[in-house]
Write a structure and sequence with these properties.
Chains A, B, C: It is a multi-pass membrane protein. Chains A, B, C: Keywords: Membrane, Transmembrane, Transmembrane helix. The structure is a homotrimer. The first copy, chain A, is globular, with a radius of gyration of 21 Å. Chain A has a single domain, classed as Orthogonal Bundle (Ammonium transporter fold), CATH 1.10.3430. Chain A is mainly alpha-helical. Chains in contact: A-B, A-C, B-C.
Amino acid sequence: MPSSYRNFRNSVPWLILSLEAVFIVLFYFVFPYDDKFIMSYPDVNLMMIFGFGFFLMSLKRYGFSTTGFNLLLIVLGVQSHLTVILSVLVLLLIEATVSMTAVVISTGAVLGKANPVQLILMTVLELIVFRMSRWMSNTFLLVTDSISMMHVHLFGAYFGLAVSACFSEPSPRTDKNARTPKSDLLSMLGTLFLWVFWPSFNSILSDRKWRVIYNTYFGLAVSAVTAFALSVLTTKDGKFRMTHIHSAVLAGGVAVGHAAHSIQYPWIAMVLGLLASGIAILGSYCSQGCLNPPLKLHDTSGVHFTFGMPAVLGALAQVILLIIKNWNNLPSMGYLVMIQVGAFCLTISVALITGLIAGLILNLRLFKSIPVSKYFEDQFYWEFPHLAVGF
Amino acid sequence: MPSSYRNFRNSVPWLILSLEAVFIVLFYFVFPYDDKFIMSYPDVNLMMIFGFGFFLMSLKRYGFSTTGFNLLLIVLGVQSHLTVILSVLVLLLIEATVSMTAVVISTGAVLGKANPVQLILMTVLELIVFRMSRWMSNTFLLVTDSISMMHVHLFGAYFGLAVSACFSEPSPRTDKNARTPKSDLLSMLGTLFLWVFWPSFNSILSDRKWRVIYNTYFGLAVSAVTAFALSVLTTKDGKFRMTHIHSAVLAGGVAVGHAAHSIQYPWIAMVLGLLASGIAILGSYCSQGCLNPPLKLHDTSGVHFTFGMPAVLGALAQVILLIIKNWNNLPSMGYLVMIQVGAFCLTISVALITGLIAGLILNLRLFKSIPVSKYFEDQFYWEFPHLAVGF
Amino acid sequence: MPSSYRNFRNSVPWLILSLEAVFIVLFYFVFPYDDKFIMSYPDVNLMMIFGFGFFLMSLKRYGFSTTGFNLLLIVLGVQSHLTVILSVLVLLLIEATVSMTAVVISTGAVLGKANPVQLILMTVLELIVFRMSRWMSNTFLLVTDSISMMHVHLFGAYFGLAVSACFSEPSPRTDKNARTPKSDLLSMLGTLFLWVFWPSFNSILSDRKWRVIYNTYFGLAVSAVTAFALSVLTTKDGKFRMTHIHSAVLAGGVAVGHAAHSIQYPWIAMVLGLLASGIAILGSYCSQGCLNPPLKLHDTSGVHFTFGMPAVLGALAQVILLIIKNWNNLPSMGYLVMIQVGAFCLTISVALITGLIAGLILNLRLFKSIPVSKYFEDQFYWEFPHLAVGF
């Protein structure tokens, strides 16, 4: 494979370095620091870089690429985001980091199939499109900033799925995308980090911090409990399956995220967590059997049922809560519901359409996608051979 | 083993789901959120879910169950605790999480021997009994809330030991409860997390936050140093033993916990840390030789010398400090000492008696305990076979 | 090897215990707590104990020693530091922990070659000398405390290199200091922790907290991006090398640390991050080929190019920034530049000279250094054999 190696060597470093040059030049025109740049620093970064870096580590031969590329994409993405929104002269590091969640989730769908050049391009494209989609929500539908930000999981999951539909499927006989106990345990390490920091994540842009933290905590708690119950019910021998636990324990946090600021009773968050966990596990059961094969979708980390469907559930729940709350004021209710449904449809359709376009662009000959036989292999990108150890 | 598989499949999910249904219904009657629910969110949760999840991971074939069941029990336990104390209309998430320490410590004593149904029942029973024991201390002995909470290690360790006495011993010839360098290293990961967050944990319910943090830090520091020294002195070849380090580095934090708010000089905390570490290592030496065999105790993670005996030392130290402080006021001293000794005796006797009862209940035929030959095996509960890899 | 075992057993525990006795006696004379001991507790400790503990874990058979000795040295060092500075009656735990960075970095250079007795002596010596060096900067050059503290990386790296020059080189044919994917992955875990907490670390003693956090973040982000680009350019097949990523992603944080409080535009921090990453990777390329062999240096964890050279770059950048800022006021500029250059030369020459002396002391017959054939082996110190598993 000398040609693709050379191609890789020729394109990656120059792409990265020229991107950095662009960033530095653009940052040159940024005003100096002022006192408005306050944020609570380590929480979100710990979650994005450490939590997601290990959460996605489920492929046995793809550990280096998972953590390494995750760090690369996040730091590139944060800089691009800050560059993209320079026009409004706001330099909000935390918003940039939260936006990166969309990219990290999309990465999960094409993990092991896209090469670094494709991933970097996807990062830049997705951030621009997500920012556009939020701008459209904010301008035309008058959705507030913190609510449109909570569409980040929805956008990330469906954008990633659309991109992944354009990649060739891996050969079904290969065992390279198998999991091992070791990779599952390291993935559990990341999952527990995400679980613990999810309430901080949901509350970070909200002004009703404590309510959001409590609601998210209860949603997450119930979805973790339900995950264990449903996993036993859906597997053949009545055992737990680690993949179920990984995806379903987080589903509650995703679903509650949309409406967390407006839920007034803990039991509502708990019911949402229960439903989200059920959707995640039953969804994974159905989508492997009847949804993915005809669509030729291969969703490496199961982002569809971990982030996509729970986010749809969360958006639905928010509409229902609005209807119940404004029941005695029909015109206002109609208006509010319309806005919510509009924002949801806008986000999901922008994600699917631009995701497909991005997927087609990424599979142009120019970016020489890697051969299917080299999918899920660290050895293709990293110097250290994983020959004998099969991690 | 088709019968026990079926039994497991039949009971676990329905037990979990019906517990969740009960929680949701009870939470329905809770008042909506108000502004009093303030806490410092991620610290304690990071410690409980991530730290303890990996700290207990010392069995080579039990990694999935250790982290997975730890998460399940904590989220179930927090919800039961909140349900149990609904009567007083206080919804304090942080108190619930701190109480869970008792359960997690008890889990360590029966790790690999109890099945999930037994663990869930133990969680619910222990939380109710611990709450009862604290209520008795608070009401009859007028002990303050934050002090009775610091009995959490004492209660957890002796409750766990009493429960564990009712389980059959593992066959001495099996090597399944052996450690491997990998499991020890992951356990070290959890230990370091616990070590770093222990000062936050001790100070979380205290009103003299900084004094408690400093005292705990000095206690932990000296016990870590002493652990290395004593480990070399007690092993055959004069080498370090990882198990000693794991248990003894935390002993200082446990011992200082009881009196941290009233220690006025760092050197007292340091002496306590030194003694706690000594007790933990010498205790592990003696208890394996002469204490456990006649009592037929098998204490998987060594909770007796990591948490039990250092907590007894801490309670004793608190009494001695009280005597010294009130030396010139004998009647007041007598009263205060009586209260402390009374609270200590109450906690330990409630823990041992209810622990034995709980152990007998858990070993009823109804809950079909697992055969001794299947102890310490992930494979019994989880779908993924740990066949070739021996993690 | 019975003699060295006996020697080890005889010296380590008594050395540790007598050190502890000295600390406790000295702490006895410390004033009781007062309200001035405020710090932001867990961040720095999480970084030092957890982050560095796993960051240094790159040797395949030295995992126990890396994490274990790291904890031992940090807690011993914090106590010695507090004892050393008792004369000024300031009991600042956080300053003690930050000072320990120097020791931890020096440890990286002699990792696997020094035994615990040597490491403990090095810790005590280095802390005293570093405190002396800072005191000289503060007194004679009137450098502020928070600036002289940022020389911690510079001091640690060159002290460690000088000490390491006095140890025998490992045999070039041995493969014990090889890396495995597993040790690299655990090292990545520590690296990500350090990356996330580096901005907190740089800002912890500064009074312009947010500016320092932002500058460090941008420096780190650009150095992470550059690390990937340069790694592809410098390796033979055009692949990434994990060692490059580990060292270069942190280089930006080290370089920005010196001047972070005075950098007014993000692009300056970004350029510094780019240069630091380049220096780290090109430096590792050159030093392995032409610098280390003639000097007979063996730098186990590459602290020279990860911490040493980026710190030199940072000091240089600070001087250049001073020149630009005070261009129109030549006398003041000359004075300020002289102070900065003086402080830099003072730190680096004290580090090199005392490092050499410390290295010679450590290699006295009294401390019986371990034979070269036993370098990089956990088995020499720890009871658990790493025989079959090769972690």
